[in-house]
Amino acid sequence: MIRTLKTLLLFSFLICAFTPLFSQEISGQILELWSQKKYKQAIKQLDKVEKSGNANHLTYYYRGMCHEMINEAQMAYDDYSMAINTKADFAPAYFQRGTLILYPKLASESINDFNMAIKHAKVDSIRLQAYANRASAKMMLGNVDASIKDCLEVTTKDSTSKYGVAALVTLANCYDSQKKYDASERILKKLYLRDSSDMAIISNLGFTLSKVDRHQEAIYYFDRALKLFPNAAYPLSNKSYSLMKLGKLQEALTHIRLSIQADPENSYAYKNLGEILLALELKSDACEAFRMAINKGFTDMYGNEVNELMAKHCKK
Questions:
Q1: Of 15-19, 20-24, 57-61, which gets the smallest average pLDDT?
Q2: Distance of CA 2 to CAs 90, 105, 312, Å?
Q3: What is d(CA 208, CA 202) in angstroms, rounded to the nearest whole number?
Q4: What does the pLDDT look like over 260-306, one tens digit per residue?
Q5: How many CB atoms lie within 10 A of CB 35?
Q6: In this model, does residue 6 exceed pLDDT 50?
Q7: pTM
């Protein structure tokens, strides 16, 4: 089952914006309902098309998009799959399905869909969006060099569109993982000057600064991100780490608990929780948090940091 969609505000990955690709083959009524954000009514109309026996790949594709817009992720996934089964070379359905499942645990499956979207895309916009999101998926799997290659495939052609910015953010994250923090900061500050209201840019810039112990500066950007989205899991988590480094342990603990409440699947938050609990001299609780980080996939995505912390602090 595909888990229910929610707003993803990832510090490491920016998912390309949802872009409907309507065709003249879809009825004006459906288009009007979409423009009015009456997605449930649009679904009912598309259900009628299916029951009439006249459904084609576009029927399922547009119905999938409507389901996605009302957070019915499993039904959206099923409709994108039906669109693909009906027309095996329909790139937009591969792209939407791959983006829908762009989570660490499903990254390999997501990459398969982006591969097919790239193979069958008839327009550059779809192809480049697929490269941008495939870069994110590869980063999730720790394949940094391959992610950089996909990012550059996008940014050499387009660095100003939403997917161009997405690729640049992922490229900055790749540099962070290689400890090339100066390169990451340059990219993100240029993007910030271009758009100081983009959540992913702001949050990622704060994260990069925190990696070089510029925690007061980092908190400034995390606060800017949280002003836009007060319950965003990743800025909350990253701010907690900077607060811990500044010795504000109780405030750090409050922020990390809010982060985990917002996204219980974020392995990095459990790593931060463990470190905060260690600083509070709650070693048993810290070790449990580290185990949760590993169970949530931290090692596959970020490396051995948590294993090393456990080896040092959590004696068997």
A1: 15-19
A2: 22, 11, 37
A3: 10
A4: 999 998 999 999 999 999 999 999 999 999 999 999 988 887 889 99
A5: 11
A6: no
A7: 0.83
Output the six-digit token pair for 117. 């979207």
**Cα–Cα dist 294/161, whole Å:** 36
- Residue spans of the domains in the chain: they are 1-166
Task: Kindly give, in sequence order, each residue whose CB lies less than 8 Å from that of residue 181, ignoring residues fewer than 6 positions away.
Answer: 175, 208, 211, 212
Mean pLDDT of 101-122: 94
Tokens 């229910």, residue located? 4
Q: What's the topology of domain 1-166? A: 1.25.40
With a CB cutoff of 8 Å and minimum separation 6, the contacts of 76 are 2, 5, 64, 65, 67, 68, 96, 100
DSSP string for the chain: -PPPP-----SS--PPPP-----TTS-HHHHHHHHTT-HHHHHHHHHHHHHTT---HHHHHHHHHHHHHTT-HHHHHHHHHHHHHH-TT-HHHHHHHHHHT-SGGGHHHHHHHHHHHHHH-SSHHHHHHHHHHHHHHHHHTT-HHHHHHHHHHHHTT-SSSHHHHHHHHHHHHHHHHTT-HHHHHHHHHHHHHH-TT-HHHHHHHHHHHHHTT-HHHHHHHHHHHHHH-TT-HHHHHHHHHHHHHTT-HHHHHHHHHHHHHH-TT-HHHHHHHHHHHHHTT-HHHHHHHHHHHHHTTHHHHH-SHHHHHHHHH---
Q: Which two tokens stand for residue 36?
A: 């009015």
